[in-house]
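User: Hey, quick favor. My workstation is busy. Could you predict this chain's structure for me?
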Amino acid sequence: MIVIKNVFYQYEPEGVQALQGISLNIKNGEHVAVIGPNGCGKTTLIRHLNALLIPSGGNVCIDGLDTKDSQNHSRIRPLVGMVFQNPDHQIVGMTVEEDCAFGPENLRLKPADIRARVAEALVRVGIADLAPRNIESLSGGEKRLAAIAGVLAMRPRYIALDEPTAFLDPISIKRVMDLLEKLHGEGVGIIHITHNMAEAAGTNRIVVMNEGRLYLDGAPREIFGQIDKLQAIGMHLPKMTELMMKLKAAGLPVRTDIVNMEEAVDEVKKLLKK
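Assistant: No problem, here it is.
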């Protein structure tokens, strides 16, 4: 379990208080979306999960290991894989295969074990055919998948992703989201920042942040049912939820706690039958 207890974080020398008393537990195997207005502290929060940042106050513990103890860092970082918004910030190899091997090499594994992990990770992500490709020849979506493969080669229990679908085309977005759902099904804990409410609706838990604080926390249906609170901080609803609300306002007997297209289609079918 990831345990975040009363965490404060201040950027120096600017003195900006990015996190202000965040407390949160995330169980292994959960798929958690972190949403909120720009500048609310989302990226700062997830960078605490593998000790890239250390709390100014409070504690972050990963499976009982406190990030404030530097001796724990070599054990924490393989547990929590981090995927940055820009994959160029973490890709270091010349080819996909070389980059994927970088993490296991730093774990000082035997060459045979490294090769096995790389092959496994590339197959898991669905890019085994890209293994010999030069990184510079990849599309944005392929780079994102290569970055995730490099993280998976470390065999983490949790993966934290900062807007993994940002700036991608629809096909690449679907590939990334399908992969996250697959990993979640395999028992990997997923924590990902998103501005896409449809993506957030597809998780099993949403954490809403505002001004460095925890604002809301719950299942997607519960969160998107608190319309006034979301609108108060400038957040939008999933398109399907907005559609159902408009139909309800027009006098049609529909549910308004719809969060995805499949549910909306079912609701409209029921309406047409009536």
